[in-house]
Amino acid sequence: MKTWLSLFLPTDEYKRQKLLLFIAEGGVLLVLAQFLSLIIGPFESSLVPIISIGIFVFYVTFRYIISGMEYTEVATQSDYKKERKNIVMKSLGFGVIFTGLNFLVQGEGFLIIEPIIMGLLATLFFFLFNWLSLKQSFNKNRELMDE
Protein backbone atom coordinates (compact mmCIF):
# COMPACT_ATOMS: atom_id res chain seq x y z
CA MET A 1 0.00 0.00 0.00
CA LYS A 2 1.53 3.29 -1.14
CA THR A 3 0.75 6.30 1.00
CA TRP A 4 2.66 9.22 2.48
CA LEU A 5 1.88 7.77 5.90
CA SER A 6 4.20 4.84 5.07
CA LEU A 7 7.15 7.11 5.83
CA PHE A 8 6.18 7.05 9.52
CA LEU A 9 5.10 3.42 9.82
CA PRO A 10 7.30 0.43 10.67
CA THR A 11 8.46 -1.86 7.86
CA ASP A 12 7.22 -4.98 9.63
CA GLU A 13 3.80 -5.80 8.13
CA TYR A 14 2.25 -6.97 11.43
CA LYS A 15 3.35 -3.83 13.28
CA ARG A 16 2.22 -1.66 10.37
CA GLN A 17 -1.28 -3.15 10.34
CA LYS A 18 -1.68 -2.96 14.12
CA LEU A 19 -0.48 0.65 14.21
CA LEU A 20 -2.89 1.59 11.42
CA LEU A 21 -5.67 -0.05 13.44
CA PHE A 22 -4.71 1.98 16.53
CA ILE A 23 -4.64 5.18 14.45
CA ALA A 24 -8.08 4.40 13.00
CA GLU A 25 -9.50 3.72 16.47
CA GLY A 26 -7.95 6.97 17.70
CA GLY A 27 -9.49 8.80 14.74
CA VAL A 28 -12.93 7.51 15.70
CA LEU A 29 -12.36 8.71 19.27
CA LEU A 30 -11.23 12.08 17.94
CA VAL A 31 -14.45 12.44 15.92
CA LEU A 32 -16.54 11.37 18.94
CA ALA A 33 -14.76 13.90 21.16
CA GLN A 34 -15.45 16.66 18.61
CA PHE A 35 -19.09 15.61 18.35
CA LEU A 36 -19.51 15.49 22.13
CA SER A 37 -18.02 18.95 22.47
CA LEU A 38 -20.72 20.24 20.09
CA ILE A 39 -23.50 18.48 22.02
CA ILE A 40 -22.39 19.30 25.56
CA GLY A 41 -22.19 22.98 25.06
CA PRO A 42 -19.96 25.98 24.91
CA PHE A 43 -16.31 25.40 25.61
CA GLU A 44 -13.40 27.68 25.08
CA SER A 45 -12.99 27.33 21.31
CA SER A 46 -9.23 26.82 21.48
CA LEU A 47 -9.50 24.01 24.06
CA VAL A 48 -11.65 21.63 22.01
CA PRO A 49 -9.03 20.79 19.34
CA ILE A 50 -6.28 20.54 21.94
CA ILE A 51 -8.30 18.13 24.09
CA SER A 52 -9.37 16.09 21.07
CA ILE A 53 -5.84 15.79 19.72
CA GLY A 54 -4.62 14.93 23.22
CA ILE A 55 -7.17 12.11 23.42
CA PHE A 56 -6.03 10.82 20.01
CA VAL A 57 -2.31 10.92 20.81
CA PHE A 58 -2.79 9.41 24.28
CA TYR A 59 -4.98 6.60 22.95
CA VAL A 60 -2.66 5.62 20.09
CA THR A 61 0.41 5.78 22.34
CA PHE A 62 -1.26 3.82 25.14
CA ARG A 63 -2.52 1.11 22.77
CA TYR A 64 0.94 0.79 21.21
CA ILE A 65 2.60 0.50 24.61
CA ILE A 66 0.26 -2.19 25.94
CA SER A 67 0.18 -4.14 22.65
CA GLY A 68 3.56 -5.72 23.38
CA MET A 69 4.83 -5.51 19.82
CA GLU A 70 7.76 -3.12 20.17
CA TYR A 71 10.44 -5.52 21.41
CA THR A 72 9.83 -8.67 19.38
CA GLU A 73 13.32 -10.08 19.97
CA VAL A 74 13.12 -10.05 23.80
CA ALA A 75 12.12 -13.52 24.95
CA THR A 76 14.68 -14.57 27.56
CA GLN A 77 15.49 -13.12 30.96
CA SER A 78 18.99 -12.09 29.83
CA ASP A 79 17.57 -10.29 26.77
CA TYR A 80 15.08 -8.54 29.05
CA LYS A 81 17.81 -7.35 31.45
CA LYS A 82 20.02 -6.17 28.58
CA GLU A 83 17.17 -4.23 26.97
CA ARG A 84 16.17 -2.75 30.33
CA LYS A 85 19.71 -1.40 30.73
CA ASN A 86 19.49 0.06 27.22
CA ILE A 87 16.21 1.75 28.14
CA VAL A 88 17.79 3.28 31.25
CA MET A 89 20.69 4.64 29.20
CA LYS A 90 18.39 5.96 26.44
CA SER A 91 16.19 7.61 29.06
CA LEU A 92 19.14 9.31 30.74
CA GLY A 93 20.48 10.51 27.37
CA PHE A 94 17.05 11.81 26.42
CA GLY A 95 16.76 13.58 29.77
CA VAL A 96 20.11 15.31 29.40
CA ILE A 97 19.33 16.45 25.85
CA PHE A 98 15.80 17.54 26.79
CA THR A 99 17.05 19.51 29.80
CA GLY A 100 19.83 21.12 27.76
CA LEU A 101 17.42 22.18 25.03
CA ASN A 102 15.03 23.43 27.67
CA PHE A 103 17.76 25.69 29.05
CA LEU A 104 18.47 27.01 25.55
CA VAL A 105 14.81 27.71 24.77
CA GLN A 106 14.02 29.44 28.07
CA GLY A 107 14.27 33.18 27.85
CA GLU A 108 15.43 35.54 30.49
CA GLY A 109 13.69 35.68 33.82
CA PHE A 110 13.11 31.97 34.34
CA LEU A 111 13.79 29.93 37.41
CA ILE A 112 16.70 27.55 36.98
CA ILE A 113 14.70 24.75 38.58
CA GLU A 114 11.99 24.74 35.87
CA PRO A 115 14.06 23.16 33.06
CA ILE A 116 15.50 20.65 35.53
CA ILE A 117 12.07 19.55 36.75
CA MET A 118 10.77 19.38 33.17
CA GLY A 119 13.81 17.27 32.22
CA LEU A 120 13.27 14.92 35.15
CA LEU A 121 9.59 14.49 34.32
CA ALA A 122 10.34 13.91 30.63
CA THR A 123 13.00 11.35 31.57
CA LEU A 124 10.61 9.58 33.94
CA PHE A 125 7.82 9.39 31.37
CA PHE A 126 10.22 8.29 28.62
CA PHE A 127 11.52 5.52 30.86
CA LEU A 128 8.07 4.41 32.04
CA PHE A 129 6.62 4.22 28.53
CA ASN A 130 9.57 2.21 27.23
CA TRP A 131 9.73 -0.02 30.29
CA LEU A 132 6.00 -0.81 30.15
CA SER A 133 6.32 -1.62 26.46
CA LEU A 134 9.31 -3.86 27.16
CA LYS A 135 7.49 -5.63 29.98
CA GLN A 136 4.41 -6.24 27.81
CA SER A 137 6.57 -7.46 24.91
CA PHE A 138 8.56 -9.77 27.19
CA ASN A 139 5.38 -11.29 28.67
CA LYS A 140 3.80 -11.70 25.24
CA ASN A 141 6.93 -13.28 23.77
CA ARG A 142 7.22 -15.72 26.67
CA GLU A 143 3.57 -16.73 26.21
CA LEU A 144 4.22 -17.34 22.50
CA MET A 145 7.27 -19.47 23.32
CA ASP A 146 5.34 -21.56 25.85
CA GLU A 147 2.64 -22.48 23.32
What is the CA-atom radius of gyration, in angstroms? 19 Å
Structural class: mainly alpha
Helix tally equals: 4
Number of domains: 2
Number of strand elements: 0
Biggest sheet record: none
Strand portion:
under 5%
Beginning-to-end CA distance, first to last residue: 32 Å
Unreliable sequence segments: none
Helical residues, percent: over 70%
Shape: flat
Average pLDDT confidence is 89
Keywords: Membrane, Transmembrane, Transmembrane helix
Transmembrane segments: 20-40, 46-66, 87-105, 111-132
Protein name: DUF3278 domain-containing protein
Structure description:
- There is one protein chain.
- This protein has 147 residues and is mainly alpha-helical.
- It folds into two domains: 1-67, no CATH class; 73-147.
- 76% of the residues lie in helices and 0% in strands.
- It has four helices and no strands.
- It has helices spanning 13-40, 47-67, 77-105, 113-146.
- The radius of gyration is 19 Å and the shape is flat.
- It starts with 12 loop residues before the first helix and ends with a helix.
- The mean pLDDT is 89.
- The chain crosses the membrane at residues 20-40, 46-66, 87-105, 111-132.
- Keywords: Membrane, Transmembrane, Transmembrane helix.
- It comes from Allobacillus saliphilus.
- This is DUF3278 domain-containing protein.
